[in-house]
Each structure stands twice: as C-alpha cells, then as structure tokens.
Specification:
By secondary structure, the chain is an all-alpha fold. It has 12 helices and 3 strands; from the N terminus they run βαααβαααβαααααα. It has helices at about 20-50, 55-70, 75-85, 90-125, 125-130, 135-160, 175-180, 190-225, 225-260, 265-280, 280-290, 295-305, and strands spanning about 10, 90, 170. Strands 2-1-3 form a 3-stranded mixed sheet. Helix 2 runs antiparallel to helix 11. About 30% of the residues are buried.
Length: about 300
C-alpha cells in the first residue's frame, strides 16, 4: 500500500525516551543553549573586532554560522517532541529537516576544506598569500563552501520527494534522507537516488583527499623551519582536530546508517545518528577559542575587563 504525500511521518526514535523525558529535555535544552552561546559569541567576536578580519577567522565564523544553521534545524523540534505525546512530523517538514541535516554536515566539510587551502597558502606560499587571498577570492571561497552542499542536497532531496512511499515509520528521532529513502515502495524507481548518493560520496572523498594533500605539503614545509612549526601549532592543530572529529563523526554515521545493527539499544542508535549535531557544534568553537591565540587573548581581555 502506498502512502499519500499529505501524510505525516512518525519518529519512532522517541519510544524509549518516555521514561526519562524531563532530565533528557533539561540536558538537551542546556546543551542547545551552550551551542548557541559558543557559536554566537565567536561570530560576534570576529565580526566586531577588526583585527580578526582575516581569512582564517572569516572561515571560522562561517563554520560557527553553519553550526547555528544545522542545530536549529534539529534541536527546537527535538525539544518540542520530547514534551509531546505524538512524535509526528509532516512530509514537507521531514524533507526540510533531512535537507538541513545533510547540507549542514557537508557544509562543515567544505568549510574545513577551504580552511585547509587557506593554511596551505599561508604556510607553503607565504609570498603569494596576500596577493592571492583578496576580498573577492575570499568571498568566492565562502560562497563555494556554502553553495556546493546546498545545490547537491537540493537535488538529493528533490529526488527523494518524487518517490512513492510505503511506510510512515522513521526509525530515529530526526528525518534523514536515507531513512525516507528506505520507506520507498518496492516498485519505486530508486536508480537516480543511488546515483546521486554515489556522486555526493565521491565529492566527499575529493574533499578529504584535498585536505590530506594540503597537510602533506604543510607538514613538509613545517619540518624545515621553526617559524613555520610555531605557526602550525598555533593555527593548524585546531583545524586538524576539527577535521578528524568531522571525519570520524561522518564515517561512523554513514557506516551505521548503511550497515548498522538493529539490535543496539534505541538510545545508542539515536546517539550515533545524532552525533554530528552533538559533537562538532561545541567542539569547533571550543577548539578554536582555546587554540587560536588571537581569539583566546581577545576572550581573556573581555573577561578581564568585565572582572574590573
């Protein structure tokens, strides 16, 4: 039997949360506030301080804005679902949430790729860096890092929207494209969806290869000079940590969605699916806030002024 597109989906990932709704709601609300506070603070700090109007910090503010975009597509709905007895989401709402979740995750990767390129230019091509990184080039790179995911996942979600579905049970606490895709009727034409998924995967691989390539050159250059090593420790360690976190989270999530066991407890299944909305949005601003001396000093001077 096929379901009409006017129907809503049931998010069955909430079934096990019933017993501890209030503590889970409190912790999640607090955590969402922490995400908002960290990311908004960092964006404001970079926007208001002219000494931070450099490519690296502008990319960092882009990363924080992306975190705000991605988490706002999930946490408010999740929090209202925790307090509600019916965990339904409209067909359009589900597609929108899937689009936000995937475009946020991919946008993180494309911003980190552009940041890797920026570090490569700054460390391996210092003489050309300022003539190359003009305001125009900077805005082109920022646009690239945002538009690529948006275009890719618009196509992806549109392909999912044309599928005839034979179920309304989403097995998690949020909508993901793959979970909607799994509800397609046996006779539905899923070939374009598979092609689109593989294209996205290949583009992901190219991003990763590019980041690895830039780091091979950065490390080669840093081995030669002490000055570059200091620069590496100051600016690349935070970026490299973000890259490793992003890669681990995406890999675990993708592997689990495709090949994961259904026998795991529901709460653990939910955590694995949601970790890309839990770990990077807090870790990125924290890492950069502590590691980039300019930002750290600015935060400390603000605290010091407040304390006076």
């Amino acid at each position: 039997m096929s379901w009409h597109h006017t129907l809503s989906f049931i998010l069955s990932g909430f079934n096990e949360t019933m017993n501890f709704t209030v503590p889970l709601f409190s912790v999640t609300l607090l955590y969402y506030c922490v995400i908002l506070f960290f990311n908004i603070s960092l964006v404001l700090l970079i926007v208001l301080d002219e000494s931070l109007h450099e490519p690296m910090y502008i990319f960092l503010s882009s990363l924080c804005i992306n975190a705000l975009y991605g988490t706002t597509g999930f946490y408010p709905k999740f929090l209202s679902d925790l307090l509600s007895s019916s965990h339904r989401i409209s067909y359009e709402g589900c597609l929108l949430q899937a689009f936000i979740a995937y475009s946020f995750s991919f946008c993180d990767l494309s911003i980190l790729t552009v940041m890797a390129f920026d570090r490569y230019m700054a460390i391996c091509r210092p003489l050309h860096y300022h003539s190359f990184m003009t305001k125009r080039r900077l805005s082109q790179l920022v646009c690239f890092s945002w538009l690529t995911p948006f275009c890719l996942f618009s196509i992806n979600v549109l392909l999912t929207a044309r599928l005839k579905l034979c179920g309304i049970n989403i097995q998690r606490a949020l909508c993901l494209n793959w979970l909607i895709f799994k509800l397609a009727c046996p006779e539905a034409d899923t070939f374009p969806n598979n092609i689109s998924a593989y294209v996205i995967l290949v583009i992901c691989y190219f991003h990763w290869l590019f980041i690895i390539w830039t780091y091979i050159y950065i490390i080669k250059t840093c081995v030669r000079s002490r000055e570059d090593r200091v620069m590496f420790m100051q600016t690349c360690v935070a970026h490299l940590t973000s890259v490793i976190i992003n890669f681990t989270v995406m890999a675990v999530d993708w592997m689990y969605l495709r090949f994961g066991s259904r026998d795991l407890p529901q709460s653990l299944q939910n955590f694995i699916t949601l970790e890309f909305l839990i770990i990077p949005p807090v870790m990125n601003p924290l890492m950069y806030g502590f590691k980039l001396s300019k930002i750290r000093n600015r935060i400390l001077s603000l605290i010091y002024l407040k304390g006076k």
